[in-house]
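Entry:
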Amino acid sequence: MFPLRDHNPSNRTPYVTWALIAINVVVFASYSSVLSNDRAVQAFFYDWALVPAAVSQGQDLHGFLTSMFLHGGWMHLGGNMLFLWIFGDNLEDILGHVRYLLFYLAGGLAAAMAQYLAEPYSMVPMVGASGAIAGVMGGYLLMFPKARVDILVIIVFFFRVFSVPAWVMLGFWFAMQLISGASATAETGGVAYWAHAGGFAMGLVLMLPVWLRRGGPGFWSRNAGHPPHPEAIYARSNVPKVTRKRR
């Protein structure tokens, strides 16, 4: 299940979201040439990623910050940036540029801390912006639970695009992180599920004061959980593709 776009236009130009995407792409491009060399990329990640075992010895604390701008491959980078593109502009619209940037970084730091606490002696380097982006997704769920999100569902040879409320897509995603995190071990590597869950939870917590200032449950009631503005409408197509959201 992959999100393609939402139907939730924003009124503010998302300069910070664009900048974060650009920074992640530029950083990845700066070291992508060494990805084919296992020894070189391992040395690079041990220098700049978050390595829980090193943190437990009081070393490489910078990894809490730098790890959220590193990725393991083009698909890893592309998937994360797609999620940020879809959900980031609406949070930036609500929070403003500076507060949104601080929100994003706080989500990333919380995500890294959650993964560290889950596996404090792991030697597996953690990289990726997904923890910070999970924070954006948590904030989005709180503010726009019924915003429509177009998702691509792939089951073997079955391809279909569905439009679902944000709470369905984001709630399912969060549940999968908890289930997968509970069954994963430090030795399996792969996906930092607890970083995702921790970032998502932090996003919910940080957006809670904003939601309450707007009326809390009353904010939901006024628009039945939908965004407080008309939804974007896209032309139907038999071929699913990512379309820039209208503003």
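Strands lie at 2-6, 148-155, 158-165.
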